[in-house]
Write a structure and sequence with these properties.
The complex is a heterodimer of chains A (440) and B (835). Chain A has 440 residues and is of the alpha/beta class. In chain A, 38% of the residues lie in helices and 12% in strands. In chain A, the strands form 3 sheets. A 7-stranded mixed β-sheet of chain A has the order 3-6-1-9-10-2-11, sandwiched between helices. A two-stranded antiparallel sheet of chain A has the order 4-5. In chain A, a hairpin with a 2-residue loop joins strand 4 (176-178) and strand 5 (181-182). Chain A is globular, with a radius of gyration of 22 Å. The two termini of chain B are 37 Å apart. The longest helix of chain B has 21 residues, at 101-121. Chain B is of the alpha+beta class. A 4-stranded antiparallel β-sheet of chain B has the order 2-9-4-7, with no helix packed on it. In chain B, strands 3-8-5-6 form a 4-stranded antiparallel β-sheet, with no helix packed on it. Chain B has a two-stranded antiparallel sheet with strand order 1-10. Classes of the chains: A alpha/beta (440), B alpha+beta (835). Chains A and B meet through helix 7, helix 8 and helix 9 of A and helix 9, strand 2, helix 14, helix 15 and helix 16 of B.
């Protein structure tokens, strides 16, 4: 079954919709009611997005069968042990990205989790939309030290090179706090550790530490006073910047207060830096994520295995070519094979993540059962920069175990469902057209 | 042309030479060209593809023409693109009927004249920049200059957002809670290091596994061409290993090197060695045939900063058994090593202990010379240098007293002095009172006066007046639209432009006295600042982003294809370009040397890589490149050539694009989606890279842009993907000929550079625009055009010297003044090169 996305292919799938009377009632709705029903104890209150760049070789991703008895294709094979927790979803389109202007990669990742078309610019005036993970982060912020963690595995320090006139903000991060605030990724495990557990200074006594915290709060007080005064004196654009600073200071104050009242001990050694080998690096970051979720320091996270348009090479699996050019394979089987190997490696690392979550108890169930995890890419066929029929799967929660082939609709419909699933009543999000329509 | 034919018919009795007639007629055509000529031309040659239903290149010229003569002003950018495409011959495409050269010239000349007319009518304005947050580099540099502390504080700050290609554009630099927290931490570390000495670091180990290149070390490839004349230090050989390690503080560190590989039986012992930044630090002696698992370790005293650690084998081909016919053959007796047979006797055990535990016990003789390194571990710091530097303390303690000798008045003096330097203007009494309040608080908690001062200093370093460069507005009621920034604000603009750091005492003094704006004083300051060491910031930050050679740090060439590329070569490549640009800036050369020069800067490592003899040692020195096949200018630098390649091969397209964007100020538009990649497996075997790329020319839609990009890249094909010279690409000889759409052809990179030199105005205009954006921290607006034109026009008369460019910017209206706020919205729409 060839999977080149052409208009012809579209109409085939539209035809499928007409003949899909065999598909059962939407499983996700049933899942939702399962969550609400009294039988289940632990709520689903962790959200994670694991992102892989440059699309996926769809012919080795999309299961042939739909429904519960599907065979795991090559790329998904490593996830088979978690069959009961996994729902593969086919048929969703990144409608907001498709109609945006700009580089194929930037407009895809820039709209992936928000359903808002990113503004075509390479300048300072980037604009997209709040992403669904941040909706959850805002809801749960009062209960967590770190409202959300944005992690990445690719150093985004390149200057000048993003995607055909589209800003790096669109390719290097997938979570947006609001329409104008992209949330940059942290690529250093040590820095992530310190965000979660603070700069634990072994040399100081508790009294000294307390005094230092007092001084820091006082410094922030003085700074707020100075900033407020400046706000009165300056022009409009400068005022906005000072306001931004004031908001940041208030957040830091809250965090210091939180940290003072909370003495959680880290259950992982402080990493010294970025590991040399990619799989080790990925696993370290995923371990940190598990720790953050387990100790409830954070409940929302997105992790990018690479920035969109990634040019990472994977010598560990024998691939010397950079990822992005490889995905423009023109149908050449050798290139497709190499890309498939990369896709498999990413899926294996995701399987590692699920394994860690599953083996971590939290309250009545495992951490995996309490998490709603999305894995996938904002592109399906990297060769044509297609944003249709995205490669996506949901993991975690209390149900799974099927391949759901839905009718063409915006991917934001899935996010509406997801937000409802984690207890945040949502009717619409981004460019959604309603609840996820899995129907007949 | 019908008109000319009629004219000729009317002039039969004038026996003028035909060419004279043509000249007259062409001139007549030009004089008579007007907007209608342009419209006719467009209707005839352009509108078929550039209309509302088929908007090729996103351009609907039919719609534009509907606006009449106003369109040249309203859609200026579009018409500029039209001129650019016509002049280079890219448009009309080659498979369309070609208008005559005279017609095209008539159209472009008229358009350019109209643009000049428009520009003359533009009132230049100063523009406004909102409060500019210090970016990472500026923050580190400022702390370094204020406190004398240089500890990579901003290394884990989130990356700065870029705009227009630079990371110091005001509107792109945002603030977040994460960053605020990091500012607090950084301020604490900086102040405490300055006042109380560097923080006591727990020793830690960093492990560096080394790439394995066995296949390259065995066989004939690794043997030197002349066994009597090779690199005795081993630094440039494939058997060596290099890592760049950051030493956080000065102190003692342990370096442990694990060996691997083999040395022939009967050889003299091997001499592995450790080099730090190219200087021999320690030599070892290892007497073994099988080196696997052999460990050598040493302790070294190292100053803080990033240093290159190199593990090498000294005199590797000396002391080999006589049959290798090398220098100083070994005098050890040959023969099997173990004598006891199945039962090892005492002598055998001694030998095993001495020569390595994995020695071949079947009594065969080792013949391989593939000694290498397995890993390097760096541990420390031990015996860290602890006390605060006296120089830093005397800078801080402006009252003149030492630690623990301060009076109460001292505190006010210290804080007033420091805040004045940190805020880049005198601090107000109200501000000082606030900071004094902190000192009182700390002392009330029982801590020392010094702790109080430290806390107050930290508060100064997170104050918005420190973190942002703030410029105040003035109320003007005499009808003026802009006003000069204050002398202090001007001093800040100057120092952050040229040094990416805070103004020094000299600048602040002149600001205080009010003399900074006098043209002579200003010129003197600019020259002083350019010659100062701190102008390195222009190299690293401006040029590093303009020419993108910061990217050298992240490229990863394929280890199999390019085994000689590793950290030491990477560092040398970057340093060559940095040093070259530094020379142009520091010694005030012509900026055109960027395009083509007869010199460069090399160390031994890079010289060897370039195939040049006679250059020894790790220091960079000026080398005359005239007469060499490589020549000078950035297009001959391995750094640029490597960062414009893929990890496995060169890309003429990427190189051509780089030249268009960065040297010719003519970035190509975005490529269309779903462009397939090259079939890499065929290249070098059945088909050359060049032949594959011919497909660009065959497809008319591709040719429009690629006919301009590809030839530029072909001109550089003598340089492989890591910038080394080559005559062959795989099995095909390299073809460096190129044919530009204008019809001009060339062969090789030297002729290519000549072509760029001929187009120097484009280069100079582009450079001016970029330096302007960098200096001001905002994008370009239409009202900047007269300013930019004036700066560029003054350069030829000054031999294109760099200082003239800087003086032009620094003396310009936007740099000296600020527009009042009612005139402009603070969100600036962008101009400059549309993609």
């Amino acid at each position: 079954m060839t999977l080149i996305i052409t208009d012809k292919h579209m109409s085939r799938r539209t035809l499928l919709r007409g003949t899909s009377a065999a598909i059962a009632l939407p499983m996700l709705d049933a899942m939702q009611s399962a969550v609400a029903s009294p039988g289940n104890s632990s709520p689903v209150n962790r959200v994670a997005v694991v992102y892989v760049p440059n699309g996926i070789v769809m012919k080795s991703w999309t299961p042939v069968q739909t429904g519960p008895e599907f065979v795991f294709p090559r790329i998904l094979k490593s996830l088979e042990p978690f069959r009961d927790s996994i729902t593969v979803i086919s048929g969703l389109n990144n409608t907001a990205g498709n109609k945006a202007k700009g580089g194929g990669h930037a407009k895809a990742s820039g709209s992936f989790l928000s359903g808002m078309s990113p503004k075509f610019t390479a300048g300072a005036d980037v604009r997209a939309g709040i992403t669904f993970d941040q909706v959850a982060a805002v809801k749960w912020a009062p209960d967590t030290r770190v409202p959300s963690l944005q992690l990445g595995l690719e150093d985004s320090r390149m200057v000048g090179n993003c995607d055909s006139g589209s800003s790096c903000a669109y390719t290097n991060c997938i979570s947006w706090k609001d329409a104008e605030t992209p949330l940059g990724v942290d690529v250093n495990p040590r820095s992530v550790f310190e965000r979660l557990f603070g700069k634990v200074d072994p040399g100081l006594s508790p009294e000294t530490r307390a005094r230092r915290a007092l001084y820091r709060r006082s410094i922030l007080d003085v700074t707020q006073e100075s900033t407020r005064q400046l706000v009165r004196e300056l022009g409009a654009a400068d005022r906005r910047k000072m306001d931004e600073y004031l908001t940041s200071i208030r957040e830091v104050e809250k965090r210091i207060k939180h940290a003072e009242q909370d003495d959680r001990v880290p259950t992982i050694d402080k990493p010294s830096g970025i590991p040399f080998e990619f799989p080790e690096y990925a696993k370290l970051m995923l371990d940190l994520l598990v720790v953050a979720f387990q100790s409830d320091l954070s409940r929302v996270s997105s992790i990018m295995f690479g920035r969109e348009g990634s040019v990472r090479t994977y010598p560990e699996i024998g691939i010397a070519d950079p990822h992005h050019p490889l995905t423009h394979h023109r149908g050449h089987p050798d290139f497709i094979e190499r890309v498939t190997k990369i896709n498999c490696l990413h899926a294996e690392l995701f399987a590692y993540f699920l394994g860690r979550l599953k083996s971590t108890q939290d309250g009545a169930g495992t951490l995996l059962e309490q998490s709603a995890i999305l894995y996938g890419s904002a592109l399906s066929d990297g060769n044509s920069h297609s944003g249709n029929d995205l490669p996506l799967l949901m993991a975690g929660g209390h149900r799974g175990g099927q391949h759901l082939q839905v009718s063409e609709q915006p991917v934001t419909n899935l996010y509406v469902d997801l937000l409802n699933r984690v207890g945040i009543p949502t009717e619409s999000f981004g460019d959604s057209t309603g609840q996820l329509d899995t129907g007949t | 042309m019908k008109r000319s034919q009629r004219t000729i018919a009317f002039m039969p009795k004038f026996r003028l030479h035909y060419s004279v007639i043509m000249v007259i007629l062409v001139a007549a055509t030009l004089c008579r060209a007007d907007e209608h000529t342009v419209f006719r031309f467009v209707r005839k040659h352009c509108v078929r593809c550039h209309n509302d239903s088929k908007t090729s290149g996103d351009l609907d010229l039919r719609a534009l023409q509907a606006n009449g003569g106003r369109t040249f002003d309203e859609s200026r950018e579009a018409w500029e693109r039209v001129i650019a495409k016509l002049k280079t011959g890219e448009m009309p495409p080659s498979d369309e009927p070609r208008p005559s050269a005279e017609t095209v010239v008539g159209v472009t000349d008229w358009l350019e004249a109209d643009f000049m007319r428009q520009d003359r009518m533009i009132q230049p304005q100063a523009g406004r920049v909102s409060a500019r947050r210090l970016n990472r580099t500026e923050y580190s540099n400022t702390i370094r200059d204020l406190l004398g502390v240089d500890i990579r504080l901003s290394a884990d700050f989130p990356p700065d957002q870029t705009a227009f290609g630079f990371d110091n554009v005001s509107d792109a630099l945002r603030m977040s809670a994460v960053l605020t927290e990091k500012y607090l931490d950084a301020a604490e570390r900086a102040v405490r290091t300055a006042m109380f000495g560097p923080e006591k670091l727990q020793p830690s180990v960093t492990h560096y596994p080394l790439p394995v290149r066995i296949n390259l070390m065995r066989g004939t490839k690794s043997k030197p061409k002349d066994p009597f004349n090779y690199d005795l230090t081993g630094l440039s050989m494939v058997h060596a290993a290099h890592v760049a390690h950051y030493f956080p503080v000065e102190g003692e560190y342990s370096v442990r090197i694990v060996l691997n590989g083999h040395r022939p039986t009967q050889s003299e012992p091997a001499h592995p060695a450790l080099f730090i930044d190219g200087v021999l630090a320690r030599e070892f002696k290892v007497d073994a045939t099988d080196l696997e698992g052999q460990i050598v370790e040493t302790r070294v005293q190292v100053k803080s900063g990033e240093r290159l650690l190199s593990a090498t084998y000294l005199k590797m081909f000396h002391g080999l058994p006589p049959e290798y016919q090398g220098p100083e053959p070994s005098s050890r007796p040959p023969g099997p090593l173990l004598t006891g047979g199945d039962q090892l006797n005492q002598q055998d055990i001694e030998i095993l202990r001495r020569l390595g535990t994995k020695i071949k016990t079947d009594m065969s003789v080792e013949t391989r010379i593939d000694n290498r390194f397995e890993s390097i571990d760096v541990g420390g710091p031990f015996a860290q240098q602890m006390p605060p530097s006296p120089a830093n303390l005397s800078k801080l303690y402006a009252c003149g007293h030492g630690t623990a000798e301060h009076t109460d008045e001292c505190v006010r003096t210290i804080l007033t002095n420091f805040a004045g330097r940190a805020f880049r203007r005198p601090a107000t009494t109200q501000e000082i009172e606030r900071f004094l309040g902190l000192v009182t608080l700390v002392q009330a908690e029982g801590d020392s006066l010094e702790e109080g001062i430290a806390t107050a200093l930290q508060a100064i370093l997170v104050s918005p007046s420190f973190l942002f460069r703030i410029e105040h507005d003035h109320n003007l009621d005499d009808g003026k639209t802009c006003f000069p920034v204050t002398d202090y604000e001007f001093a800040s603009r100057l120092s952050y432009f040229i040094w990416s750091s805070t103004p020094d005492c000299n600048l602040l003094q002149q600001a205080r006295e009010g003399s900074l704006r006098h043209p002579d004083v200003l010129a003197g300051q600019v020259h002083r600042m350019l010659r100062d060491e701190r102008s390195r910031a222009l190299v690293e930050n401006f040029a590093g982003q303009w020419l993108q050679f910061r990217n050298i740090d992240v490229i990863r060439p394929d280890v199999e294809r390019f085994p000689e590329f590793e950290d030491s070569l990477r560092r040398s490549m970057k340093r060559e370009t940095e040093r070259f640009i530094e020379e142009i800036i520091r010694e005030d050369h012509s900026v055109l040397e960027v395009l083509d020069a007869d010199y460069t800067f090399l160390d031994e490592r890079l010289a060897r890589f370039y195939g040049l003899d006679g250059i020894e040692g790790p220091e960079f020195r000026r080398v005359d490149m005239s007469g060499t096949r490589r020549g000078g200018g950035v297009l001959s630098h391995a750094s640029v050539l490597a960062l414009t390649s893929y990890s496995t091969r060169t890309s003429p397209v990427v190189r051509g694009k780089w030249i268009l964007e960065n040297l010719l100020n003519a970035p190509p538009p975005t490529p269309p989606p779903s462009v397939p990649a090259l079939d890499e497996s065929k290249i070098g075997e059945s088909v050359s890279l060049r032949q594959e790329m011919e497909q660009h020319r065959q497809n008319v839609a591709c040719a429009a842009c690629h006919s301009r990009m590809d030839p530029l890249g072909f001109g550089l094909e003598n340089f492989n993907a890591i910038g080394a010279w080559r005559e062959l690409d795989g099995t095909d000889p390299v073809d460096t000929s190129g044919l530009l759409p204008s019809g001009r052809s060339f062969r090789g990179h030297q002729e290519l550079k000549q072509i760029l030199m001929d187009d120097r105005n484009a280069f100079v205009r582009g450079l001016t625009e970029k330096l302007f954006i960098y200096a001001l921290g905002r994008g370009l607006e239409r009202y900047d055009r007269p300013t930019l034109a004036a700066i560029t026009d003054a350069l030829p008369a000054a031999d294109y010297r760099f200082s003239k460019l800087v003086l032009g910017i620094v003396g310009s209206l936007p740099f000296q003044m600020r527009s009042i706020s009612q005139q402009h919205t603070d969100a600036s729409p962008t101009e400059g090169n549309e993609p």
